[in-house]
Amino acid sequence: MAKLLPFRPRIAVGMGTCGTGNGSEGVYHAFADAIDKRGLDIHLARVGCFGFCAQEPLVNVWLPGRPLVILHRVQSQHVDEILDDVMMGNIPTALALCKIEEWDHITAQVKYGTGYANIPSWRDIPFFKGQKKIVLRNCGLINPDDVEEYIAVGGYQSLYNVLIDNRPDVVIEQIKAAKLRGRGGAGFSTGQKWDFLRKAVAEKKFIICNADEGDPGAYMNRNEIESDPHSLLEGMLIAGFLTGATMGIIYVRAEYPLAVHRLERAIEQAKEYGLLGEDILGRGFNFNIELVEGAGAFVCGEETALINSLEGFAGRPRPRPPFPAQKGLWGFPTNINNVETWYNVAPIIARGPAWFTETGSAKSPGTKVFSLVGKVHNTGLVEMPLGTPLKTFVYDIGEGGVGGRAIKSVQTGGPSGGCIPHEMFDTPVDYESLAQLGSIMGSGGMVVMDEDNCMVDVARYFIEFTNSESCGKCVPCRVGLDKSLRILNRITSGAGRMQHMETLEELSRYIRDSSLCGLGQSAPNPVVSTLKSFAEEYRAHIEDHKCPAGVCGVQPVGETA
Amino acid sequence: MITLTSLPLAEADQEFLDKVIAQRGGRPGALLGILGKAQDHQPRKFLPRETLEYIAAKTDTPLARIFSVVTFYALFNLEPQGKNTICICRGTACHTRGSRELLESLMFKLGFHDPDDEMADKISLNTNDGKYTIRTVACFGQCALAPVVEVNHEVYGHMNEQTLQRELEHLGRETAKK
Predict the structure, then answer these.
(1) Which of A392, A542, B78, B134 could crosslink A496 through cysteines, CB 3.0-4.6 Å?
(2) What is the tens place of the pLDDT at every residue in A477-497?
(3) Do A295 and B146 touch (CB under 8 A)?
(4) Yes or no: is domain A456-543 CATH 1.10.150.170?
């Protein structure tokens, strides 16, 4: 705690990938140099990302006994001025975005202090209003490279309690009672999955964290790992103990070098502190976690493809059954959960299932982190209770379109999802409601489209993506997507015909119904949903040779084309 | 069958690979890790045939399987990469903010004038002079900075044709100096 609330001012620079992409590395070094040169008594730290990507670089400033203040859009030239203010016991108000008086880390509470009547509380900033940070409870507030800060906010306390109590059955029942569902998109009950693994009898059992976040337009998992890697380790350790797994594996995208680096560091530190490895916390529990980097294949996010990849094969899916819980990695029972699912484990154990089900909807309790990006005013990572209407995301949190432009649609669920038209923005965001609209919640990507985006082009874009990422194993996906792409190319170039719309629908049905894995089964969603809600845009391309948004290079072509 | 025409690996390279294989062999994801390290070890960031053959022999894996893995994953290269790598993000947020136009103009500037043939989602193109490689990535996860371009592993956000052009000119000068 002496690091989080030292007896001297603390300045913490947000250093997630978004922050560094906006120049926070330079800001951090400017602070370090200036503090050093002026010999100031200030605690300087690196933290993860607080989620408001559009306002990066974010810097937290804390003076003992006062609220934590988040400064936004800080550049190196501001550093001297900020330090002058801080040494005088002041806050650079011009740069202040908001203040935090106390913070609920779920596993612990931190009281920063009171004061600064003229700075708005973080809850009163539109972007944060209504957000409930369970998964992101530590992100942007603690140093991800320092296990002591994680422990200071109640980290590893849940693991400790689970080990001391030593009643795995009871804890699995609690996870079931909390109705925690897989956050990778499929929404299967996490407690049930763990129960399968616990009951499986085998010489070895594996648990895997799927951090192969491949959906374009989604980066929740990257930020979660970069900002708070120990929460992931704790979730896996708890599940390891409960299910009797012998090894944990984190399969992470190689495109996320900082996440890989932070995890390596976290694993090292957890081992040093006796939280990972042999005889954990002196309770005779042995568990190791291996880190494996992917190599750039979207389909490896599918669980059986991921297993093939780990075994040293091309990442092609296998038919299910047998499910991984029966026959997974090297034939042993295996449980796979998405990154975000693991982040919910320690909070549920700390506060109990009844607390967890208070948030969200009856069928889907808890929160979900979304990456709100595209043509929206406020972009960033947003954690909201499940069941929040889509319009809250777009108009309240996101504050509408860029420069007041009209928003046409929101694309959810990445290449497996669909485009939800403006008229449907009352829809609550949860697993079932989005599926009813022909989209999915998926892993949490939300890309906002305005009148300058062509929906036919968006469909074409996703089919181009899934077509090139298709592993080629089964015919419907391999051939069907290729055909769909050719048709969409004809439409966007002005050589489409009216019957193409019907053909696309028919093809989509075949691909959806007969593909081997989730990639193929959901790949037609972008086409089907745009055909349904934006048919007039298709017609404009085909009949009038016009792209209403002015995106596609439509050229009138004769009937022979 | 492994042909006898390929050159044996230099001793230092063999030692390096032996070490990597000893470290990772038998663990989950071993082959991906070994291939990744082997590629990073090469100054031109690719996997020459003799390296693949050596790994096949030492890990007791059929060369065909290794080739299948190398060609399946986008991160592995069978050809030497350019001195500078420019990677354009083709994620959804970048796409809605014009990354396709950026890619097309970059390809045109570096001499790939026939985009119809080469326009695929996954691109890895090397210029003949060995100076540049153009790649695409599905998503860097930096969507709030869209459109994003990575130049020699450094990420630049909010790119447009002018800033990309400036970056190219800068790279041209730097490469000429070397």
Answers:
(1) A542
(2) 999 999 999 999 999 999 999
(3) no
(4) no
